[in-house]
Every structure is written in C-alpha cells, then in structure tokens.
Amino acid sequence: MSFFIGLLLTIQALTCLFLILIILMQPSKADGGLGAAFGSGATDTLFGARTGNVLTKGTIWGATILFVTSLLLAILIAHQKPTSLVLDTAVATPKAAEKAAATPASQKTATPAKSAAPAEKAAEKPATTPVPVKK
C-alpha cells in the first residue's frame, strides 16, 4: 500500500511541475505573457502554429491527472492503518495498571535514595548576587 502512495506522490509532484511550466508558457490575452519571455516565437516553433490548442490541452490533461491522483491519495491514506493512536495508549494504560497492581510489593525494585551532594553544592552558593554600583 505504501508503494502505491509513494508512486502517486511522485506522479503528483511531476504533474505539478508540468502544470507550472505549461501555464507559464501560455500567452496571456493582453500582452503575450511569460510565453513571450521564452523567445517570443519559441512555443510556435516547438509546438507549431496551434500553440494555444496544444498548451490548453496539456493544461486540461495535467489538471485531470492532478485531480485523480489527489483523489486516489486521499482514499488510500484514509484506508491506511495508522501506526499509533491516542486511543491505543489509553486502552493499554489500564491493562498496565492492573498488571502493576497484581504484582506483590516484594517483587518491585526499590529506587535508591538520592545522594545529598547536590544539596550541599546548592548551600555553598550565595543566596543573593551583589548589586552593581552606579557611578
């Protein structure tokens, strides 16, 4: 399942790049748009005299592929089994508490007492810091 999700994500990313490029190549109705920036007649030379038709069809196909891959990704990810949920840990917690309550106190390990060394180091430090004198 994750292979198909990765494949669809790759197809979707490539389709997005394709759509960005093909939309930028289309001339606008007012001044030629960014299509003119690619060499004014470069799109006519590359695709022929009917550049608008080819670019329009490419945009339609790209948008269709983008829509279909988005829909398929949404379906696949919705049906994917989640790795962990908050509810899973909430259900597991009472079971662990019951198990801990069932074990006798003699089997539980005692925690060692903390040493007094950090408390002694804290006592050595001065309680207040000196205030700087203004000149």
Task: Characterise this structure.
By secondary structure, this protein is mainly α. It has a domain at 2-79. 62% of the residues lie in helices and 0% in strands. The longest helix has 29 residues, at 51-79. It is flat and about 80 Å long.
Largest sheet: none
Overall pLDDT confidence: 74
Rg on CA atoms, Å: 34 Å
What percent of residues adopt helix (DSSP H or I)?
55-70%
Secondary structure class reads mainly alpha
Q: What overall form do the CA principal axes indicate?
A: flat
DSSP strand tally: 0
Strand content: under 5%
Listing every helix as H and every strand as E from the N terminus to the C terminus, the arrangement reads: HHHHH
Provide keyphrases for this structure:
135 residues, mainly alpha
Compact summary:
Helices cover 62% and strands 0% of the residues.
Task: Break the fold down into its secondary structure elements and pairings.
Elements lengths: L1 H24 L16 H6 L3 H29 L6 H17 L14 H8 L11
